[in-house]
């Protein structure tokens, strides 16, 4: 499904969303690692493709959204309006490939290291601790949730992550929303020749 809201200007805001997991899901650790690899930072596949290779967007990203009754994977980027359709096609193709084949062993190893090494920052201040306690309360999670999460991340394997991705993400349920001008569409710009 595609929803476009036309506005003035030259830039377009695009969000791709599909159903994912609840915060209480046993696949939480696996999907957190998968999201880190696909779109959660400058190291991610999404950033390397849209920003580094094509120069389309300064801050593409993806994140898991948790509600009380459902969850979503949301992928967002900003680009020139003429690349709306081409960028959506490219991101959808990337997502399909990721769901079908999963990450590489190197990607998995690096993602696990990033998540575990950054975890202390989530409880580095009183406000951060309060936020963690609020999450436990809202989603009725046990007090050892963070410790269990660390243990589950360390234990993740390629097979486990791939199974969790395929079990929870279905590209047939994609929803696209875009906000910006509705203009003639063109293909993605060519990838620069780095050798030159």
In brief:
The protein is of the alpha+beta class and 196 residues long.
Explain this structure to me?
This protein is α+β, with helices and mostly antiparallel strands. Helix content is 45%, strand content 18%. It is built from 7 helices and 5 strands, in the order ββααββαααααβ. The protein has helices at residues 28-39, 45-53, 84-101, 105-118, 126-138, 145-155, 158-168; strands at residues 2-6, 11-19, 61-66, 71-80, 175-180. Strands 1-5-2-4-3 form a 5-stranded mixed beta sheet, covered by helices on one side. A hairpin with a 4-residue loop joins strand 3 and strand 4. It starts with a strand and ends in a 16-residue tail after the last strand.
- The total strand number stands at 5
Helix content: 40-55%
Largest sheet: 5 strands, mixed
Beta-strand percentage? 15-25%
Low-confidence blocks of residues: none
Tell me the Rg in angstroms: 18 Å
Distance between the termini: 41 Å
Mean pLDDT: 93
Give the overall shape, derived from the CA principal axes.
globular
Structural class: alpha+beta
SSE ordering:
EEHHEEHHHHHE
Placed side by side, the strands forming the largest sheet appear as 1-5-2-4-3
**Total helical segments:** 7
């Amino acid at each position: 499904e595609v929803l476009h809201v036309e506005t003035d200007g030259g830039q377009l805001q695009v969000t791709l969303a599909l159903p994912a997991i609840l915060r209480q899901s046993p696949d939480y650790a696996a999907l957190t690692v998968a999201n880190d690899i696909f779109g959660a930072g400058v190291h991610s596949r999404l950033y390397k493709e849209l920003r580094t290779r094509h120069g389309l967007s300064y801050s593409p990203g993806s994140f898991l959204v948790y509600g009380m009754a459902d969850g979503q994977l949301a992928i967002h980027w900003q680009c020139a309006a003429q690349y709306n359709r081409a960028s959506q096609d490219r991101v959808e193709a990337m997502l399909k490939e990721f769901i079908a084949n999963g990450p590489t062993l190197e990607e998995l190893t690096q993602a696990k290291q990033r998540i575990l090494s950054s975890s202390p920052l989530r409880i580095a201040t009183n406000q951060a601790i309060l936020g963690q306690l609020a999450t436990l309360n809202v989603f009725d999670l046990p007090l050892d949730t963070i410790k269990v999460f660390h243990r589950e991340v360390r234990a993740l394997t390629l097979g486990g992550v791939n199974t969790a991705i395929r079990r929870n993400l279905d590209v047939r349920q994609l929803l696209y929303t875009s906000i910006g001008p509705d203009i003639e569409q063109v293909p993605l710009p060519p990838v620069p020749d780095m050798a030159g």
